[in-house]
Design goal:
The chain contains 18 helices and 14 strands. The chain is elongated and about 170 Å long. The protein is an alpha+beta fold. The N and C termini lie far apart (179 Å). It folds into four domains: 92 residues, no CATH class; 171 residues, Nucleotidyltransferase, domain 5 (2-Layer Sandwich), CATH 3.30.420; 67 residues, no CATH class; 83 residues, no CATH class. α5 packs across α6 and α14 runs parallel beside α16. A five-stranded mixed sheet has the order 3-2-1-4-7, sandwiched between helices. The chain has a four-stranded antiparallel sheet with strand order 8-11-12-13, with no helix packed on it. The chain has a three-stranded mixed sheet with strand order 9-10-14, with no helix packed on it. The protein is 44% helix and 16% strand.
């Protein structure tokens, strides 16, 4: 016995979808005679049963079918109408029943055909990580697919910012040798700032300028309408499943080299399942219909206004780049390209760096601190001259003599200034005077003169006599006369001999 749900499906196929009984039977897996029988039955008539099982909803199912035939009511609307008729069951059984019998409109998409050179589709993909210096970065890949030939351009990056997005476009155009008439894109922030259903998209001004420069139109897909760029979405899945799955390369350059080889030997020379031709063979029909490349370049840079810190560094993507020291604590303009940074102040280029894709790195141009070091050196030398000339009014003359006779005059000045701490300013000034008289210009001579004077010591002063009263108070020890007795006895013995 045919159940009620199958009966509803038969009526849907024959009525709403306008299928023949044979087509309906094939779609539902039924005998065509069964379909024909129920096609002529205006109302479902279940087979009588001796032990019928009656549910709360059974008496109302006919009403539900008629309501759905007349209008696409929601399950909540049907439940409310049933309650008005005396139904005392739950909302869930009504919802489940409506879902079972409501004819589901099959999702159908128009097949999009494109002429050679007419269009290409663009999208980003992501999968896994790749090592960059001391860190790991998310691996992204840019994919552009020509809609007619299905030829692909694939490029791997670790960033999806606008400068990388536009640079990948340009390299794709160069690989194809031309530009398609229009590009179909998803709602990427690098291309579309705002996309609302029923409202014209708001394109990124940078991307609009880029499209005008290269001569292509922009077509943004509708919201949640990935089928409109199915070629590139299928391509993203194809790259993941047929190239990236199981790939153990950790270096970005190695991944890119392997990807280029894979495109040349696999992706673009396989028999495509939709066209049944090789993409490169169909590309020969498309090549001459692409727009010619613009010989003039386009400024791809992302422009950022930042303030250099007191260490004369600017920050971008967690890395720090140096600028000349005089621009410390000043605002500058950073133009970030995919491979380099150009830094400007007052419309003048002040610094240029290779862009670092590592994290938390300090990149310094050896020329940038030189001005600061020179300033510090000049300040030290100025302090040295002030200290030297403070020794004596004739210090300036002695300095001129040093500079005329000594290659390393500054070194002699520093040593002479240091002697002031050891011997005092007056002693050093006297030694300078002596050096001028003898035309002896060197720190060694000054040090020798100071050492010699210290060895000689100070001259004795005048004799100071004590007073007579003081002399009377002097206590002198008594002389030891016993020594005379000893000597006398010795002499007597000699006379007796």
């Amino acid at each position: 016995m045919l159940n009620y749900e199958t009966y509803c499906k038969i009526r849907d196929h024959l009525g709403r979808q306008s299928l023949t009984p044979a087509q309906t039977a094939q779609a539902l897996g039924l005998d065509v005679r069964t379909v024909s029988k129920w096609a002529d039955t205006p109302q479902y008539q279940p087979r009588a049963s001796t032990t019928p099982r009656v549910g709360k909803l059974d008496d109302f199912k006919g009403h539900i079918v008629r309501w759905l035939d007349a209008h696409s009511y929601s399950a909540q609307q049907i439940y409310q109408r049933l309650c008005e008729m005396g139904f005392d069951g739950g909302r869930t059984i009504v919802k489940d029943y409506v879902q079972r019998i409501r004819p589901r409109a099959p999702q159908a998409f128009l097949k999009l055909d494109f002429a050679p050179g007419e269009a290409a589709q663009v999208d980003w993909g992501e999968m896994g990580t790749v090592g960059i210096g001391s860190t790991s970065r998310r691996l992204s890949f840019f994919l552009m697919v020509l809609c007619f030939s299905r030829r692909m351009y694939l490029e791997f990056t670790v960033s999806q910012t606008s400068e990388f997005f536009l640079a990948c476009h340009e390299r794709a155009f160069a690989a194809f040798g031309g530009v398609p008439q229009r590009l179909l894109i998803d709602n990427l922030k690098s291309a579309v700032l705002q996309r609302l259903a029923g409202v014209a998209p708001v394109f990124n001004p940078k991307y609009l300028d880029f499209s005008r420069h290269w001569g292509f139109e922009i077509s943004a897909c509708n919201v949640r309408s990935g089928n409109e760029k199915g070629r590139v979405e299928n391509g993203v899945g194809y790259v993941k499943k047929n190239f990236l799955y199981g790939l153990e390369l950790t270096d970005l350059a190695a991944v890119q080299a392997a990807g280029t080889l894979w495109m040349d030997t696999v992706a673009n020379v396989r028999i495509h399942e939709s066209t049944h031709e090789r993409p490169m063979d169909r590309f020969e029909q498309e090549r001459t219909l692409l727009k010619p490349l613009n010989p003039n370049g386009f400024d791809l840079a992302r422009i950022v206004r930042v303030r250099a810190n007191k260490q004369f560094r600017v920050a971008l993507d967690s890395n720090h780049y140096s600028v000349p020291a005089k621009f410390a604590n000043q605002h500058v303009i950073v133009k970030a390209y995919d491979d380099r940074l150009c830094i400007y102040a007052d419309d003048k280029l002040i610094a240029r760096h290779v862009r670092c894709m590592d994290r938390h790195q300090d990149i310094e141009d050896p020329q940038h601190p030189k001005e600061l070091l020179q300033q510090r050196r000049s300040a030290r030398e100025q302090r040295l001259l002030v200290q030297f000339q403070a020794i004596s009014p004739r210090a300036q003359v002695y300095r001129e003599g040093l500079e005329a006779t000594r290659v390393d005059a500054r070194a002699h000045l520093r040593r002479i200034v240091a002697l002031v701490e050891m011997h005092g300013k007056e002693s050093v000034a006297r030694a300078l005077d002596d050096g001028l008289e003898l035309k002896a210009f060197s720190a060694e001579y000054i040090a020798h003169m100071l050492a010699a004077r210290r060895r000689i010591g100070s001259e004795p002063g005048a004799l100071q006599l004590t007073r007579a009263a003081d002399l009377l108070e002097l206590e002198l020890p008594q002389p030891d006369l016993s020594i005379y007795d000893h000597d006398q006895g010795h002499n007597t013995g000699a006379d007796d001999e």
